[in-house]
Amino acid sequence: MSIVQEIRCSNCGAPIKFNPGEILATCQYCGFTVVIETGEPFTFEHSMILNQFDPTQVEKSIHDWMRSGFVKPGDLARASKILEKNLMYLPFWIVHVNVISEYKGVFERLTPPMTKEGKIEKEYNWLVLARKATQFPTREYDIPLEGKIPYDFRRIEGFAKVLNSEIGKEDAADIAKQEIETLHQFLAKEFVDKIIEMKNEFSISDTLYLHAPIWFIKYEYRRKIYQLLIDGATGTAIKGDIPSTGFGIL
Ligand SMILES: [Zn+2]
């Protein structure tokens, strides 16, 4: 167990609890966000996305997911028991970045192999989870940014949990750059078989701090426990464990 520590909110004076390793903490009484190390207010934009479901309504989303697709057991919705439905507001950094990747590589699909050059230019709102130990499929989460509003603690449900940031803005930018570089290497491999060199130019125009509502669902099916993540803004499944149908044909 980690030891919870406290600082005073510089806006309302209430105690703000935080865990070791957290960098930004939000006051649960007034919604003010402070930088833990310095106690200074966080002066950048802090947004949130609203959750649209209560614990009863989210069951419909869970059952819709269970009934959809071909690979799930036919009785999944009927035979499953929902064990946990926890709403968590996860902290994210959204790095708005323009990237130009220039690459040189060898195209080996022809004989003789030839050297080719190319350029990939893209613009992203790259999502970085601001937590270190939490497993979350950021690339599968199509975050509904059009619904973002300024962070408002009064819109956070009493039963929800809000996680603080463990990753600073600069580190988030570095993570985004590394992940984009990996993606662009993958994209370049469509045009060349071997990359000789790649130069990436990143222009970050802004970085946004945002809390988004995610339902962490645990369900039991035939005495095994599975996890499912639901986007609290749209009710769509982000990622879920699917029980195998148990027929050993494959
Ligand atoms: Zn406060």
List the helices and strands and how they pair.
Layout: E1 5-8, E2 15-18, E3 24-26, E4 33-35, E5 46-49, H1 58-67, H2 76-79, E6 81-107, E7 114-129, E8 148-150, E9 161-162, H3 169-188, E10 194-221, E11 224-231, E12 237-240
Parallel strand pairs: 5-10, 6-9
Antiparallel strand pairs: 1-2, 3-4, 5-8, 6-7, 6-10, 10-11, 11-12
Zinc ion (ZN) binds next to loops.
What does this protein structure show overall?
The structure is a single chain. With 250 residues, the chain is mainly beta. Helices cover 14% and strands 42% of the residues. The chain is built from 3 helices and 12 strands. The strands form 3 sheets. Strands 5, 6, 7, 8, 9, 10, 11 and 12 form an 8-stranded mixed beta sheet that branches. It has a two-stranded antiparallel sheet with strand order 1-2. Strands 3-4 form a two-stranded antiparallel ribbon. A hairpin with a 2-residue loop joins β10 and β11. The longest helix is centred in the last third of the chain and has 20 residues. It is flat, with a radius of gyration of 22 Å. The two termini are 42 Å apart. The mean pLDDT is 92. The structure holds zinc ion (ZN). The site of zinc ion has 8 residues, from loops.
